[in-house]
Amino acid sequence: MKSRLRVIGYVRVSTAKQKEGFGPQAQREAIERYCQIKGYELVAIMEEAGSGVKARPVFEKLKERVLNGEADGIIVAKLDRLGRSVRDLANIAEELRKAGKQLISVGDNIDTTSPNGKLLFHILSVIAEYERELLLERTKAGRALAEKQGKICHRPRKEVDPKVLREMKEKGLSHRMMARILGISRATLLKRLDELGLR
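Above: the chain's sequence. Below: its structure in token form.
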């Protein structure tokens, strides 16, 4: 017998959405109702407060729980509760897809356990790959132009372990402190955080 899909719900507060009757309680009810209908096991619902803050410690903790095997996927009432942009959403979806995890959005009728949902996963992963390719092309073109003009090119890209960045964000360290510990500039740190959708 096939085991029940285990999911963790994610609720994010937004004043604008609350005015439209889509506050935390409405999001919770939508998630709970969907899980009941589908027969999914709702392991927990985690709520992110302070929507104006770019860092999302609750979501990072939720994602870690899912990736560590506590659940089979993430469920949200609407996709805009999950990602701040298409790029951010694409990166999240790609990370879940690679780990064999599911993504469900009740209001958008997206469930990656279904063929249509799997198609969305694929589309989002293509977007994420396209963004990376564009970035590489722009970097190469910029470097080639600089060399042609006799300018000194930038130093090699400073790589930072994504896992380390996530742990620092979860601990609530300031950007200045993180940059100092990693031995990089604040500007470089912010770029790496943006690339990982952690800002």
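Helices lie at 15-19, 24-38, 57-67, 86-98, 115-148, 162-170, 175-182, 186-195.
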